[in-house]
């Protein structure tokens, strides 16, 4: 039941529906106050009866973004995907009206514009959202994605940065970004792992650095080559705080711009991880390589170890 009280030429509406606590809101006009109270009464009565027809897909997806996605390690990427879905899909419908047919139609439209791997990643985000709606919010009893086939993942990249490309990049890159580039080639660490490294996790005497925040969520220790140690010893700023000072976003931008200015193409900063794995695989056993790169499954080594047939032939 709603009550309305005038105060200072404004109207405060209060809705009381057990077992929910009273909810109040102040408006400029009685009309706005009554409209809000009526909508809230319907919502609270439906929730009490476990009826969720009033939950709008758009509102639920925004709530998931703001309450769940923001707490994930890859929150920036997931939030971008959700924001795109909110713009690209018809999200104004009630959540319970989201159907398999609706999602399949959206999938096919997306596949006509982008690669299957992109659509697959967007559907994975939606799958997590629908699971939350079922297991946490109790808004749904089953996921409309259950019978929707996801596009296959794209073939893994096999791009190794050549010695000539490394030499060219090192000659034109900003000196600090170049150190990050060369450190990645020596350690196989991801760009974010390098940029988030702090001096308290660097153990030069024991020849390793400790990563506490990684893609798979498990910490790992990364051994250091002589060249990697030499890079660390060249750095200024003492032994406190960030090691490399730059953010991953800044490094990515500078690296991409410099590569273009140098007339190079076809590789990204992440390809330093492929390059490092291909180099280091010739020096240490595969299980040591997996330990260094943080792979729990040795099959991952085959994704990142990318020698050419000619290079293999030279070793025969």
TrEMBL record:
GO BP annotations, alphabetical order: DNA integration; DNA recombination
Record's keyword terms, sorted: DNA integration, DNA recombination
Domain Tyr recombinase positions: 156-316
Keyword field contains Nucleotide-binding: no
One MF term in the entry's GO annotations: DNA binding
Sections of the chain in a coiled coil: none
Keyword Metal-binding: no
UniProt-listed CDD domains: INT_Rci_Hp1_C
InterPro entries given in the database record: DNA_brk_join_enz, Integrase-like_cat_sf, Integrase_catalytic, Tyrosine_recombinase_XerCD
Top-rank lineage group of the source organism: Bacteria
Protein name (record): Site-specific integrase
Organism listed in the record: Acinetobacter wuhouensis
């Amino acid at each position: 039941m709603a009550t309305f009280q005038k105060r200072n030429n404004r109207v405060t509406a209060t809705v009381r529906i057990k077992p929910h606590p009273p909810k109040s809101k102040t408006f400029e006009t009685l009309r706005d106050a009554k409209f809000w109270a009526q909508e809230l009464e319907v919502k609270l009565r439906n929730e009490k009866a476990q009826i969720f027809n009033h939950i709008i897909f758009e509102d639920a997806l925004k709530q998931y973004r703001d309450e769940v996605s923001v707490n994930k390690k890859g929150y920036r990427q997931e939030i971008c995907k959700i924001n795109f879905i909110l713009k690209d899909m018809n999200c104004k419908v009630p959540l319970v009206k989201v159907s398999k047919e609706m999602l399949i139609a959206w999938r096919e439209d997306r596949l006509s514009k982008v690669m299957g791997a992109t659509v697959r990643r967007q559907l994975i985000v939606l799958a997590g959202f629908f699971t939350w709606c079922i297991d946490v919010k109790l808004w749904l009893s089953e996921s409309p994605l259950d019978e929707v086939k996801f596009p296959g993942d794209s073939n893994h990249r096999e791009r190794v940065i050549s010695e000539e490309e490394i030499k060219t990049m090192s000659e034109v890159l900003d000196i600090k970004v170049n150190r990050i580039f060369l450190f990645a080639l020596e350690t196989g660490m991801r760009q974010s792992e390098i940029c988030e490294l702090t001096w308290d996790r660097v153990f030069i005497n024991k020849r390793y650095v400790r990563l506490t925040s990684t893609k798979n969520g498990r910490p790992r220790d990364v051994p250091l080559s002589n060249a990697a140690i030499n890079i660390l010893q060249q750095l200024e700023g003492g032994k406190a705080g960030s090691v490399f000072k730059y953010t991953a976003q800044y490094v990515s931008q500078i690296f991409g711009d410099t590569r273009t200015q140098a007339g190079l193409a076809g590789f990204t900063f992440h390809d330093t991880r492929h390059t490092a794995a291909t180099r280091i695989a010739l020096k240490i056993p595969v299980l040591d390589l997996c330990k260094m790169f943080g792979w729990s499954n040795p099959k991952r080594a085959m994704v990142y170890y990318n020698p050419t047939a000619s290079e293999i032939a030279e070793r025969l």
